[in-house]
Amino acid sequence: MMSIKLDTVGGVNPLNNVQNTHHPNSRTPGIAVNDSISVSAEAASAAEAYYLDQVAEETPDVRSDLIASIKEKIKDPNYLSPERIASTADSLMMAWGL
């Protein structure tokens, strides 16, 4: 089996060039630089859509805490009244556009 030494290339360590690089400060002292960017309305809309998509993916489809709370309320015989049932039915119909 042949072994290859990966830390050097042609007898020269390629990391030496990176490690010894000196980057002088190219800004002239006393001169303020005002950088700015502008984003088109289309890009802002796309960014908002991407954000909302991420939130939707991270939000659980089922809120188990609400389900547990409702199950406890239903156990109480006084909770289910004809008025409450009618109100809930009306809310569902409106939510579904019926």
Describe this entry's structure for a reader:
The protein has helices at residues 14-19, 41-58, 64-75, 82-95. The protein has 98 residues and is mainly α. The radius of gyration is 32 Å and the shape is elongated. 0% of the residues are buried. The mean pLDDT is 78.
Main sheet attributes: strand count, strand direction, barrel closure:
none
- Bulk shape: elongated
Oligomer: single chain
Q: Average pLDDT, to the nearest integer?
A: 78
- Strand portion, in percent? under 5%
Residue runs with pLDDT of under 50 for 5 or more positions:
none
What structural category do the secondary elements indicate? mainly alpha
What are its keywords?
98 residues, mainly alpha, 4 helices, elongated
What is this structure's SSE topology?
Layout (H helix, E strand, L loop, with lengths): L13 H6 L21 H18 L5 H12 L6 H14 L3
